[in-house]
Amino acid sequence: MFEIRFYLNRFFISSCITDKGIYSLNILRICNNTRDFTIAESLGEETEIRKKHFKTLINHLSGYFSGDTDIFRAETDFEGFSEREMKIFRHLMNVPSGHITTYGALAKHALGNNANRYVGRALSRNRLQLIVPCHRVVMKDLKIGGFTSHLGLKLKILLLQSEGITVKNNKIEHCRIYSF
After folding, report:
1. pTM more than 0.85
2. How far is CA 85 from CA 20, 107, 118, 122, in A?
3. Could you say which of 16, 31, 134, 175 is catalytic?
4. Model pLDDT for residues 48-85, shown as the tens digit of each residue
């Protein structure tokens, strides 16, 4: 596994990459200023395939932060997730930037039932921020719900707002709801 920490746009980001693809992607800190891509540190073995996965990731992230790309299509390593969790993640990966869905709609379409809480638990295990865009999942009354990140709801709100979604008092005001 190859771990790399880097600055891009307003964020300090950590990613682990295996030969299968991106294993994790987490925003660690929100910076005061926008920064060009800069590697802060790297650990582990950097193979040619891992370099390729990382280059693809940086291209997707750059596109996302500039508003050009809304869905990531990078090779992803889902090792350790259950088949049900991966169904949820794969459905959620189709929700484009600027759109939201609810825990209930995601449960219905990914699992064929009303397992809203299971969806919430699965999303709390998501180690692939932005690739599996769990920030786009809200409660049925359009309250923003939870967000498992050490940056918490501040990051969820920032990401939603950066995608053109209006959030006021922890509730979505203006948005497009994604239909599966």
Report:
1. yes
2. 18, 11, 9, 6
3. 134
4. 999 999 999 999 999 998 887 776 778 999 999 999 99
Q: Cβ contacts of residue 147 below 8 Å, gap of 6+?
A: 134, 135, 153, 155, 156
Least trusted range by pLDDT, from 1-5, 132-136, 146-150: 146-150
Mean pLDDT, residues 14-43? 95
φ/ψ of residue 29, rounded to 5: -155, 145
Q: Which residue has the tokens 């922890």?
A: 170
Per the structure block, which two tokens stand in for 173? 């005001």
Name the E strands within the chain. Answer: 2-17, 22-44, 99-102, 137-138, 166-168, 171-174, 176-177
Tell me the fold of 83-177.
Arc Repressor Mutant, subunit A (1.10.10)
Q: Please give the angle made by the CA atoms of 150, 156 and 160, to the nearest 5 degrees.
A: 160
CA angle centred on 151, ends 147 and 156, rounded to 5° = 45
Instruction: Classify strands 2-17 and 22-44 as parallel, antiparallel or unpaired.
Output: antiparallel
Q: Tell me 35's DSSP state.
A: E
Is 134 annotated as catalytic? yes
> Domain boundaries in the chain?
2-65, 83-177
